Amino acid sequence: MRFNLRKIIVFCIAVLTLWFVLMYSSLFVSPQPNRQNNVLELEKRIEGIRNQLDDQVKQSNSLLSKVQKQLKKTKHDKTVQKTQDAYDDQNSVSRPILPVLVIACDRITIKRCLDNLVKFRPDKETFPIIISQDCGHNATYQVIKTFTDADPTINVVKQPDLSDIPLSKPKVKFKGYYKIARHYRFALNYVFNTLGHEAVIIVEDDLDISADFYEYFLGTYPLLLKDPSIWCISAWNDNGKNGLIDLSRPELLHRTDFFPGLGWTLRRETWLDLEPHWPEAFFDDWLRDPVNTNGRACIRPEISRTYSFGKVGVSKGLFFDLHLRYMQLNMEFVEFTKLNLSYLLKEVYDDALTSEVYSLPELSAEDVMSNIGSGPVRVPYSNAKSYQRAAKKLGLMDDFRSGIPRTAYRGIVSCFIKGRSVYLAPNYEWTKYDPNWG
Ligand code: UD1
Ligand code: MN
User: Coiled-coil annotation: which residues (predicted)?
Assistant: First the structure.
């Protein structure tokens, strides 16, 4: 037993000594590099974990954005489908009556206008013609009578108030515009209140029409009924010169915040809102102020369905020679009543336009004109000055009304130059027009 105890004690001492030696060597034999190694190792591992976490966050984010995109697309597709279905339903509603109101004064060349209105009219019942004559010009009245005598669906009414409009000296030169506004008020009240029509197509006596003029207004009429953000349909593209339009797309239509006039449809409902505030003069510019039309839009074609031959008019010949003379009248008949035009409804159009335009490459107006590159582009502008500079360079009209450039929709002006779509677009987040522009 004693012997065993000794043995055990010796054994324990030996083990303890060995353990001591080992501990000593692990603690004191080159301790610095080892600790550094450990710290470096730890840092490496932390770095690794951080990288892994970063990767995972990145993956989750991209997955999340994919899911969000898909959700948005599904929602958008559903809206598009719903609006398309609703649009088709609306289209199947019984045919409307769309009278054509011709605003006349003292031009005997109204014959040219009436000849075309009669020639292209597909259906007398749908499109009765009402001529309203101002100015008391007998020779013009005699021309009009040859049409009304020949066809009971063509009628004439005379604007009864031919009294002079007293104006202060500086305003006298604008008397014509006062008379026109007075005449429009009478003629529209006559069509809507006396005759009780629901809508009207307004034409001036110096306009030619395209062969598909009636088809255009009949086909687009459902848009006017369906979309409360649209108040007018116009046959006119203010930038409709050859060289600024896509001649291969006669079916293409656009929304615009700039009232184009020159052949347009107006609903009775809208007239009842406008009439109490109707201006004494410059009614067209008045209609271009968003305040008067509740910021609503018009529809306009890529290629105009009217052409103005009125060189001698109230605004004189300068505008005609500089501008109107070069407008392109559409030559290809489009069956608008058979087209689905739901892409023009606000809930479809606005997002589609902005996402298309802002995904395009940028190009300066100069580079567009020197044929740099190909395919659709966005020409950015930042203020009235840079807009006008670019518009001038591209050959577009560069004037504003109530801060709105001609043909603009939400600040974007679309045209077609040298075989490509060009969009003049704000390089800032557009919210509204600035009436101080222009
Ligand atoms: C311009 C516009 C026209 C707008 C008018 C009013 C163009 C190309 N034309 O007239 O669309 O309606 O400004 O701001 O942009 N008229 C009368 N009574 C008159 C004089 C004219 O009823 O005392 C009639 C004419 O018959 C015609 C219309 O008003 O139908 C416009 O007259 P016009 O002489 O053609 O003037 P624009 O300079 O073309
Ligand atoms: Mn005119």
Answer: 39-70
Residue 3: is its pLDDT beyond 50? no
Work out which ligand 1 atom sits closest to the CA atom of 184: 22
pLDDT tens figures, 322-366: 899 999 999 999 999 999 999 999 999 999 999 999 999 999 999
Ligand 1 pocket, residue 308 CB under 6 Å: yes
CATH superfamily ID and name for 361-438: N-Acetylglucosaminyltransferase I, Domain 2 (3.10.180.20)
Q: What angle do CA 187, 145, 163 make, to 5 degrees?
A: 45
What DSSP string runs through 253-301? EEEESS---SSEEEEHHHHHHHGGG--SS-HHHHHTSTTTTTT-EEEEE
Neighbour order of strands in the sheet with 199-204: 154-158, 129-133, 100-104, 199-204, 264-267, 230-234, 297-301, 253-256
pLDDT tens digit sequence for 362-399 = 999 999 999 999 999 999 999 999 999 999 999 999 99
- CA-based radius of gyration for the chain: 37
Ligand nearest to the CA of 261: 1
Strands 404-405 and 413-417, by their bridges, are unpaired
CA distance 248 to 377: 18
CB of 327 within 6 A of ligand 1: the answer is: no
pTM of the complete model: 0.83
User: What three-state secondary structure class fits 393?
Assistant: helix
CATH placement of domain 100-344: 3.90.550.10
Domain boundaries, the chain: 100-344, 361-438
**412 C-alpha to ligand 2 centroid (Å):** 27
Residue 407 is predicted with a pLDDT of 98
> What's the rounded Cα separation, in Å, for the pair 155 and 139?
17
Residue 236 sits at the vertex; the CA angle it makes with 378 and 121, to the nearest 5 degrees, is: 140
Which of 181-217 are b and which e, b meaning 16 or more Cβ less than 10 Å from the residue's Cβ? bbbbbbbbebbbeeeebebbbbbbbbbbbbbbbbbbb
- CB of residue 102 inside a 6 A radius of ligand 1: no
- How many other β-carbons are positioned within 10 Å of the β-carbon of residue 252? 15
Q: Does residue 315 have its Cβ closer than 6 Å to ligand 1?
A: yes
Q: What is the pLDDT of residues 287-309, one digit of tens each?
A: 999 999 999 999 999 999 999 99
Of 106, 284, 350, 434, which residue is the catalytic one?
284
Q: Could you give phi then psi for residue 226, rounded to 5 degrees?
A: -85, -40
Please give the structure tokens belonging to residue 355.
């996402």
Looking at the chain, the whole-number percentage of residues with pLDDT higher than 90 is 75
Please say if 289 is a catalytic residue: no
